[in-house]
Every structure is written in structure tokens, then in C-alpha cells.
């Protein structure tokens, strides 16, 4: 009798262990991987919930050694606006018209490469605006067409990452809501850097070190 009872208990323990193992979510499962990083390339869709919530979930190891400096270089200090900022020459820029979504909006493409923070300072100081924010696929397509005039592979837009550790949040330099994302394959989870670029071919977004020097687009 005791032998039967012991066998029954062992069977129950084995079944419970199997249930718990199957019930727990696995990071390597297709469902979880799809939730963390959906491929937006060629689809025009969002990067899962990451683009809508503004949260960044790191899938790799720690950031590069200069991650702290890179993060600090992503935001514009209001005090910096009082410093002497040399505005781009007229021939270095392209005036861009507004569109149906905002006829009173103006945009300016600056061909001269600058670091992210310096680019934002130029937008604020010289044009009383900010690096451009993008909230729809249609506008992303327009910005992509503009950016091709630079003959560069990437340009700065106004997106950046605030915060540290494994859970960060996306922000726009103009303070608008983060409600759209058009990420390249593997981005943003596998990306490096705290600032966001737009690819001039395809219009997809990538994370990049803020100290890179790239052309940029101001909105004002």
C-alpha cells in the first residue's frame, strides 16, 4: 500500500513540474521573440509594443563603455542655447515646405554633418524649432525623400533614448508623444547608441551613438 502511495506521489510531482515548465514563458519561444522585436522592414508596421509605449528592452549585453557620455550627448541643455552657435550658411541648407498635415510647419535640411546635440542646438538657436519628429508612415516617407538630397546613408531625426539599465524610454526633442516607429530589422533591441537616425534608403530607423556627425532635419 505504501509503495503504491509513494508511486502516486512521484507521478503527481512529475506532472506538476512539467506543467510549470510548459506554463512559464520562454525568452527563446517564437511568441516572446515576436513580442519583443517584430521585423518592421518592408512592412511599414510598428516595432511591436516598443514603438507605442516608448520602452526599450535590451536583448544584448551592456552598452559600450562610453554609453553614459553618449546618453548625456542626446539631450539639449537649455543653458547651451546661450552659447554662441554658428548657424549654417544658406547654401548648406534646403528649405522644405509644410504638408497637408501641417501647412504652417516648415522644415530645413542641413547638409553639414553635426553631432546630435549640436544639431538640436542649431535647430533651436537658428530656426526656433527642434529636430524633426515623425508620427506617421506618410510623413516618414516625405522625410526620407528629403533626406536623399544629402548623399548620406543616414540623417538625424529628433528621437533619443532617456534612462539607463535595461528599460529605457524613447523621447522626441520637441516633447511630442511617442506614438509611431519604423524600425529596421533587429532594431531597436539590438541597436547601439542613444540617438536615432533615419536611413535615406527605405526610411527605417536605427539607433546610433550621439557623437556621430550626420546631416539633420529641423522642424519649426
Report the radius of gyration as a whole number of Å: 23 Å
In DSSP terms (H or I, runs of 4 or more residues), the helix count works out at 6
Q: Largest sheet, order of strands side by side?
A: 1-6-5-7-8
Query: What is the level-2 CATH architecture name?
Result: Roll
Q: Strand fraction band?
A: 15-25%
Residues in helix, %: 25-40%
- Strand tally is 9
Q: Report the CATH topology name.
A: Mannose-Binding Protein A, Chain A
Q: Major sheet: size, sense and barrel closure?
A: 5 strands, antiparallel
Level-1 CATH class name: Alpha Beta
Q: What is the count of structural domains?
A: 1
The end-to-end span amounts to 84 Å
Overall structural class, as computed from helix and strand content, comes to alpha+beta
- Helix-strand string: HHHEHEEHEHEEEEE
Region (Disordered): 26-95
Keywords: Disulfide bond, Lectin, Signal
InterPro entries: C-type_lectin-like, C-type_lectin-like/link_sf, C-type_lectin/snaclec_domain, C-type_lectin_CS, CTDL_fold, EMBP_CTLD, Eosinophil_major_basic
Protein name: C-type lectin domain-containing protein
What key attributes describe this structure?
220 residues; alpha+beta; Mannose-Binding Protein A, Chain A; 4-stranded antiparallel β-sheet; 6 helices; 9 strands; globular
Amino acid at each position: 500500500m505504501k509503495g503504491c502511495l509513494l508511486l502516486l506521489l512521484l507521478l503527481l510531482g512529475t506532472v506538476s513540474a512539467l506543467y510549470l515548465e510548459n506554463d512559464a514563458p520562454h525568452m527563446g519561444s517564437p511568441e516572446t521573440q515576436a513580442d519583443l522585436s517584430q521585423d518592421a522592414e518592408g512592412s511599414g508596421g510598428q516595432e511591436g509594443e516598443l514603438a507605442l509605449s516608448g520602452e526599450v528592452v535590451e536583448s544584448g549585453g551592456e552598452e559600450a563603455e562610453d554609453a553614459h557620455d553618449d546618453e548625456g550627448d542626446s539631450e539639449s541643455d537649455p543653458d547651451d542655447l546661450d552659447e554662441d552657435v554658428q548657424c549654417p550658411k544658406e547654401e548648406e541648407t534646403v528649405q522644405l515646405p509644410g504638408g497637408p498635415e501641417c501647412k504652417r510647419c516648415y522644415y530645413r535640411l542641413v547638409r553639414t554633418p553635426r553631432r546630435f546635440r549640436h544639431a538640436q542646438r542649431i535647430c533651436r538657436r537658428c530656426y526656433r524649432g527642434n529636430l524633426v519628429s515623425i508620427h506617421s508612415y506618410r510623413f516618414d516617407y516625405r522625410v526620407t525623400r528629403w533626406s536623399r538630397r544629402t548623399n548620406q546613408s543616414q540623417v538625424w531625426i529628433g528621437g533619443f533614448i532617456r534612462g539607463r539599465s535595461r528599460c529605457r524610454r524613447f523621447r522626441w526633442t520637441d516633447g511630442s508623444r511617442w506614438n509611431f516607429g519604423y524600425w529596421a530589422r533587429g532594431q531597436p533591441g539590438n541597436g547601439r547608441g542613444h540617438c536615432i537616425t533615419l536611413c535615406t534608403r527605405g526610411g527605417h530607423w536605427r539607433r546610433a551613438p550621439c557623437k556621430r556627425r550626420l546631416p539633420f532635419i529641423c522642424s519649426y
